[in-house]
Design a protein that fits this description.
- With about 290 residues, this protein is an alpha+beta fold.
- The protein is built from 10 helices and 13 strands.
- It has helices at about 15-30, 40-45, 60-75, 85-90, 90-100, 115-125, 150-160, 220-235, 265-270, 275-290, and strands at about 10, 35, 55-60, 80, 110, 130-135, 145, 170-175, 180-190, 190-200, 210-215, 235-245, 250-255.
- A hairpin with a 1-residue loop joins strand 9 and strand 10 (about 190-200).
- The radius of gyration is 20 Å and the shape is globular.
- The model has no long low-confidence stretch (mean pLDDT about 95).
Length: about 290
C-alpha cells in the first residue's frame, strides 16, 4: 500500500513556468511535492530519501526523461508518464508503428535506414513528401520534399554532416494538405481537457515557428482520436497533435508529446491545465493508497 503522504517527486531539468504552475497546483491540492534535478536522483535511487508515491517526469531532454523514468520504475516508483510511453512518444517512427498496429488514423509513414531508402520511400509516396528525424521537437529537421532536386539537396546536405549515416533511421511521411492549421489537444489521464488550433501561413504549424494559437471546442472526432491514442499508449499526460486532411476531411493523429508545455497557452485559453493535472495526480495517489498490498 502506498501512503498518500509519500507525495510526488517532480523530476525536472529546470523550473520553467509550467513546472512552477504544477508545484503551485499540487500544493493547493494538499499533495506533498518535492523537486529533483538529475543529480538528486542518486539519493532517491539509493533509498536515502523517503520514496515518493509517484514521480512526475518533466525533464527536457528526451533521453534524460526516459532514463530517469526507467530507473525510478525499476526502483519501485510509479511514474507519469511511464518510461515505455516516453520512449514511444520520443520516437516518431515508434509512434507510426504503434498507430498502424492499433488502427489509429495516421499519415502513411515509411522508415528509411539509408539514402537509397529515402529515395525509394519518396518515390512510393509521391511528391510532395515530408521527411522527419524520428526524434526532435519544435519542427526542427522536418523537411518538405517537392521534387527530385529537393531530395538530392537534402541527401547532399545530410551526407556532408553525417557521412557515416549514424543519424538514421528517418521517417518519410505522406504530405497532408491541411487547411492552414493543426490542432493540439491536451489529455489528462484519459480526458481531453482543452484543444487549441495552431494557425500559420507556413506549412509547419509549430508555435515555436510563429503559429498563432486560439482555443476551439473539443469535437466528437477529436475525442475519438484521443481515446484511440490513450487506448494504444495507456493513460497519461499528453499533447496530441491532430491534422485535418483538406482533401478527405478526415482527422488524423500526427504525433503525441509526452511532456507537453502548457503555461503559455493556458494564459491564452484560460483552462487550468496544471490544476487538472494536480487533481488527477491527487486521485491517483488516493487510489494507490487504497489498493491492498499483495
Amino acid at each position: 500500500m502506498t501512503s498518500p503522504e509519500a507525495g510526488v517527486l517532480l523530476s525536472v531539468t529546470m523550473l520553467r513556468p509550467d513546472e512552477k504552475a504544477l508545484l503551485k497546483a499540487l500544493r493547493a491540492a494538499d499533495v506533498p511535492v518535492r523537486t529533483a534535478l538529475l543529480g538528486d536522483m542518486a539519493q532517491v535511487l539509493a533509498g536515502r530519501t523517503a520514496p515518493p508515491g509517484l514521480a512526475l517526469i518533466r525533464n527536457l531532454s528526451h533521453r534524460e526523461a526516459m532514463g530517469v523514468a526507467r530507473r525510478l520504475q525499476l526502483a519501485g516508483v510509479p511514474t507519469l508518464n511511464s518510461a515505455e510511453t516516453i520512449e514511444i512518444c520520443n520516437d516518431k517512427g515508434l509512434q507510426a508503428l504503434l498507430f498502424a498496429r492499433h488502427s489509429v488514423p495516421h499519415p502513411v509513414s515509411l522508415h528509411a535506414f539509408d539514402y537509397e531508402q529515402v529515395r525509394a520511400a519518396v518515390a512510393e509516396l509521391g511528391y510532395p513528401a515530408v521527411l522527419k528525424p524520428v526524434s526532435g521537437s519544435w519542427g526542427r529537421g522536418v523537411t518538405r520534399l517537392c521534387d527530385e532536386g529537393s531530395v538530392a539537396a537534402w541527401i547532399g546536405g545530410r551526407e556532408s554532416a553525417d557521412a557515416a549515416g549514424k543519424l538514421f533511421p528517418v521517417l518519410v511521411q505522406e504530405y497532408i494538405d491541411k487547411p492552414g492549421h493543426d490542432l493540439r489537444v491536451v489529455v489528462v489521464g484519459r480526458t481531453p481537457v482543452v484543444a487549441i488550433q495552431r494557425v500559420s501561413d507556413d506549412w509547419r504549424t509549430n508555435t515555436h515557428l510563429g503559429a498563432a494559437v486560439r482555443r476551439v471546442e473539443i469535437g466528437d472526432e477529436m475525442r475519438l482520436r484521443c481515446a484511440q491514442v490513450v487506448d494504444a499508449l495507456g493513460e497519461g499526460f499528453y499533447g496530441i497533435d491532430l491534422v485535418e486532411d483538406r482533401t478527405t476531411g478526415r482527422l488524423l493523429v500526427l504525433e503525441v508529446n509526452a511532456n507537453p508545455e502548457f503555461a503559455r497557452s493556458s494564459a491564452q485559453h484560460g483552462v487550468d491545465v496544471a490544476g487538472l493535472l494536480a487533481a488527477h495526480v491527487a486521485a491517483d495517489l488516493r487510489h494507490r493508497a487504497a489498493r491492498p498490498t499483495s
